[in-house]
Amino acid sequence: MDKEKALFQGLFEASPDALIVVDGDGKIILANRQTEKAFEYERAELIGQTIECLVPERLRSDHLKQRLLFQKAPHQRPMGGALTLCGRRKDGSEFSVDILLSPIESEEGTLVLAAIRDITERNRVQAALHEERERSRITLESIGDAVLCTDTEGKIQYLNKVAEEMTAWPSSKALGQPLTRVFQLVEDNSRDTVPLTLELALSEKFGKSLTRHSVLIRADDKEVSIKYTVAPISDAAGKTIGVVIVFSDISQTLEFTRQMAYLAQHDFLTNLPNRMLLNDRLTQAIGLANRSHTQLAVLFLDLDHFKYINDSLGHGIGDRLLQSVAQRLVACVRSSDTVSRNGGDEFVILLAEIEHLEDARISAEKIIAALNDPHQISGYTLQVSPSIGISVYPNHGQNAETLIKNADLAMYHAKDSGRNNVQFFTPDLTLRSVERQSVESDLRLALERREFDLYYQPKVDLTSGATIGAEALLRWRHPERGLISPAHFIAIAEDSGLIIPIGRWVMRSACRQMQIWRQSGVPRVPVSVNVSALEFRSPHFLDEVRTILAETQVEPAFLELELTESVLMQHAEATIGVLTELKRIGVRLTIDDFGTGYSSLSYLSYFPIDTLKIDQSFVHEITTHAYNAAIVSAVIGMCEGLRREVIAEGVETPEQAAFLLGQHCPHVQGYYCSPPIPAADFVQYLGLGGRRTALVLAPACEPSENRRRFQRRRMVR
Length: 717
Description:
It is built from 28 helices and 28 strands. It is of the alpha+beta class. The strands form five sheets. Strands 19-20-22-23-24-25-26-27 form an eight-stranded mixed β-barrel, surrounded by five helices. A six-stranded antiparallel beta sheet has the order 7-6-11-10-9-8. It starts with a helix and ends with a helix.
């Protein structure tokens, strides 16, 4: 018995829980060391106290009721009935406890063994777990991605709200359903069913996830493109216990990607294929033509003088015109062909298959005719012409880059040939291109190196022989090439935009020369300078004229600006305002090359023009072709009716001079009177005075003889 008592005492003291034995009155008769540790009482202090002393006062009455019920019928309650209460330490602090009550039969009656366990840490862990679960739940419900989980049998165990919305399956119906029913996937293009994602996940190594793009078939049979990740869920031992699938709607992303891909290959303004897509299609077409032994053509198109429209009417009008041009180009070719915008006002057209070279020419001429029809843009009637160059595979190149480059060269040849026409590539154009680049490169340095000079061609009154003015003409003295004709570089200067600073130099130099002549006592005559379309459309043109006149102190009436009728008529409404301001400044205005453009008589009556200059192409044959004579006579008569002065250029023979004088056009310019001469020689020419009054009566001679006659007279002086 002593041995059993000792064993009981040892077990009693070794228990990790606080053990307290109370009698029928609830008084403590035994307590172990863990009780002292848990409640911070000495055992001697507890013996004889009711167990309620270890319970907070607010809970003692409830605890007493529970104890009395247990003591009243201990054997009727489940063995080991537990109570979750709160313990009270000696210092009054409280802590959570579990109490396990067990009856003990003894000689003194029924005793109660209370096993009390401090569950503070357990409660903390449980609270932390609950907090973590709640945080996870809120996170899963708050994130933008859809989440669903399954067990190892593929049955749905969880869906967050986003997953419910995306699958159109409410959790109440989805839970327990097979994964393949709730999460039906097919391939975007093939429409094949995607293999069971659960099997994919379980076949992977632990912790490895799979990411796929597919189409989700919702419960309402609607479809949505998704990106999803499948990963196994493992327990602490590493055993797979299910699968988690995270997925999101990528419909907008895919649409954005498609739009970006489209924009990367198409021009944003016209929606035509851009250079990148053209190169791809052209390369494919070359491969097909090579295999089938056929031909293809590349048309390089540039709009003539398009910059004038942007400069005068604004880029908004210019953009709408480009859109109109694009629509007409597409209408002119087959669906198998490609119309692309190369940039600016350049378009490249791929004719995917042609039988003969003439087919490409026919297509180009069809395009020219279509674009020449007026375009109605924002109340403006705009006319635009194209210059088109053509290269053909395989004759003109074996790859896309070469074909486009050679078509570009042919296009520049079309511009040099008068614009609004079509030209095929020829090998000599490559040499011309090299020469053109060389001239343009040297032209950029010509101003800085002071290689330009001005010559002056007199304007003469045939009735008196008096010099009534002069035209300043540009000459370029190249250090290596010598004297370069304006016909060789003016077009290049216009295409490159260099004509604006060059034109500014010409106007300033002519005005300075007039000031020098005035200060030297030379008889004063007006000097005219030619104004290019780029200069005239420049937003700073009027300011430049004012500045040059102010700097050189030349009276505005002695500066005459010559503009071609084609420049004036391109945007007649805007032109009137600029011309009116020029007249307000006081300069004289002349329409140059009159008769070669498309002037409207109604506009001519509104333009504040002083003089019309009859183009030399009509003057050359007025004595040999009745048609040209009639035109010149009509122009002279029209000028009389409009009260405009008239002057004929390109007069080279006495017969031409006599005809013009007979038609009441005494003012002429040309080799008959004098070729263009340097400024110093022009002063000598003015010194000849009235000795030229009988020029029209001189015997007929060739232009060269006229020049020799003038040189002899100048030498005599």
